[in-house]
Amino acid sequence: MLALVGKLVDYRSVRNGAVIVEDNIIRAVVPVEELREWGVDEVYGGENYLVIPGLINAHTHVAMAKFRGLGEDLPTEEWLEKIIWPMELEWTRREIRKWAEIGIKEALMNGSTTINDHYFFADEIAKVAERLGVRAFIGQTVMDEVDFSPASPDEGFRFFRRWQNKSELVKLTLAPHATNTVSLDLLREIAELSEETGARVHIHLAQSRAEVSEVRRRYGLSPVGLLERAGLLNGRLIGVHGVYLDDSDFRSLAKAGPSLVHCPTSNVKLEAQTVNLRKLLDLGLNVALGNDSPNPTGILDPFLEMRTAGIVANLTAGRAHAVPARELFGMATVRGAHALGLKAGLIEPGYLADLVLINADKPWFRPIENVYSLLVYSVRGSDVEKVVVNGRPVHRKIY
User: Fold this and answer.
1) The whole model's pTM is what?
2) Which domain holds residue 18?
3) So what's the pLDDT on residue 69?
4) Do 202 and 218 sit in the same domain of this protein?
5) Is 278 helix (H, G, I), strand (E, B) or coil?
6) For 277, phi and psi rounded to 5 degrees?
7) Where does the Amidohydrolase-related domain start and stop, copy by copy (predicted)?
8) H-helix or E-strand containing 170?
């Protein structure tokens, strides 16, 4: 058994104590003075430490670390068609392994215990994720409305079958690229497989004006309407971005029960636009947070994503303090866990032992009063000292 000691912070509460970890779950949460009674082998943390649930990076493309900084200042469609897709055609399995390792290490070092990754050569990414010890939901990107060999639907289904029930840490999603790059027939096939297996469906949703226009031209529907027609509008759906959806689309999403992943840094950088987060939360929609790709966001740091989400929410809502820090922290933890169907995101007995230890013995943590505000607006990934995934320490701070 091991224990993490400090100020324990999750969406529900802030308290001092020790988290007892046995196997892959949280066995107990106890006062520090009772720690000796548990026969713990290893103890981490102490005074001036924060212990939080592992952050859930609900939309990533970790191997795209290779493209960091490339294609600056281009809108989404040009960025994809002129920069990203031509370079992706040159991927080799060896290159994917190399850059997936860089991206996953970056995610872990910045406090992400879970990633939800959507990319090509998913076999290689899954192998790296398992070796490095991150909890990973991985889908092989597929599309059939664009002639792009790495996104072959057949390969996507083969990957899914190969890895089904193969790993404790690597779980599978079905990963249609977007509503304009995947046909209605293929979406329906994916919906059937999701229904059969219970797998989540992870899809880019209304991430650009061009996507919405193309879907309306083909089907006379919004992207949400197309997903409903395909049989995908349910609690297993994880839509990403939603930048160009309207209020009726968001009401449909809230009613049907899927999750939306908010990636504000990527949205604002590529599109100079993003969703009204306050409105989505008021509708009752489950909203998680994602870093998206290291290109264009620059870094896989979920703390920075929380901070950006809070600041941008004020602009879209037209008022200050539109989304409290505690809600933003919940989006990066328990709401992300809900999106993926994980019993995680809270520091409670029986929950997965995915935890992060933060060294708070630094000037920007003073005073330690409003801890939620500190976690959203003061912490950065470099403050992470230890990451525990599935009950096992997987990262020590590297200087």
Assistant:
1) 0.96
2) 2-54+346-396
3) 87
4) yes
5) helix
6) -60, -40
7) 50-394
8) strand 170-176
